[in-house]
Structure formats: structure tokens, C-alpha cells
Amino acid sequence: MMDLSDADLEDTGLSDSDIEDGDLSDANLVNIDLSDADLSEANLRDADLRSADLSGSNIRNANLCRANIQEANLSDADLSLANIS
């Protein structure tokens, strides 16, 4: 499991990345490019994803509890069974 908890990845390009089951809790992911990335089963709890590009990404079974997804691009993203409460 990749541990990127509390990481500052603002404005980073990680399209097509494999972050399956990764820990991105409390991470600064503002304006990050995660298009077509595999974030299945990732922990994104309390992550700041404002203006992030998550288009086409796999976010199945991910934990997005209390994540800020304001103005994020989620077009064609797979959010099946994701916790978005």
C-alpha cells in the first residue's frame, strides 16, 4: 500500500497512476491530475480534491468521507460502492 497521507501534491500530474489501496487521507490534492488513475479501495478521507481532474478514474470502493470534491471533474469516473458521506 502506498502511503501518501498528509502529502502536498497540489498541481501534480498523476494521470494513469496505479494508487489502488493507497492512503491519501488528509492529502492536499488541489488541482491534481488523476485522470484515468486507479484509486480503487484508496483512502481519501479528509483529502482536499478541489478542482482535481478525476475524469475516467477508477474510484470503486474508495473512502471519500469528508473529502472536499468541490469543482472536481468526476466525468466518467467509476464511483461504485465508494463512501462519499
Automatic annotation (TrEMBL):
It comes from the Archaea. InterPro entries: 5peptide_repeat, Pentapeptide-BTB/POZ_domain. Residues 1-24 are annotated as: Disordered. PANTHER family: BTB_POZ DOMAIN-CONTAINING PROTEIN KCTD9. This is Pentapeptide repeat-containing protein.
